[in-house]
Amino acid sequence: DGLANVRDVASYKATSSSAAIAVSANGTAQPGAYNVEIVSRAQEQRNYTKTFSSATDALGSTSTLDLQVGSGTLKQIQITATDTLDSIATKINGSGERVSASVFYDGTNYRLQVRGLDTGSANGVTFGGTGATFLGLELPGSKYQSAQNANVKIDNIAVTSATNQITGAIQGVTLALNDSSATAVTVKVESDPQGLETKLKAVVDAYNSVISKIHDSAGFGATKSSNAVLAGDSSLRSITSRMSNAVLGSVAGAGTYTTL
Asked: Which of 26, 39, 18, 41 is nearest to 186 (CA)?
């Protein structure tokens, strides 16, 4: 598998000058160096309700909480008079919407935290209905964090992504934005002979393992078969022959090395 296509055979390694950006490269990458400036990281929306004195006492509200993620379908959650903060969180989590709810305790009071499960400006969460009013989710101060895209500048060219994984901007390279950085980060892509050596060794080890198992099972030369049923088996001999042809076959136009 490691040598199945050109993308895998060509071995490159990518390095970053800062832990704020983790990088990886595949065989389609090209050697080069880039300055990457993190303007903002992608984040999910996060809201908090007003405070309540208990997470398990009935709240006494009969209302409807409307939830909508981005431009998706609006979901209505029915709140009954016997519902508590805990049970409302359970209803939100079971709504099928890409949101998560949990109870937050500040040492004195309880709040409901509702956050989106996906980053990106297209995944903002909208609240409505009498339930949102009762819980305080429509108050301006309810929204602690807005959903937003990741924004970076690569060699001073603006690039956006809905997640903190940026692929396609630099050919064959994936950037993972782990943290903010006050200064530009240098990303380098270089050829990786050791990576190719590792892949070749994996093929050699796998090949030898299969051949050894076949020789042990079917017998080879003066070595007797360990399995009488498979002694001299023609199918196993065919497998070894085809494998040998695969590694000994010459490839035209491959340069100095024409066989595996």
From this structure: 18
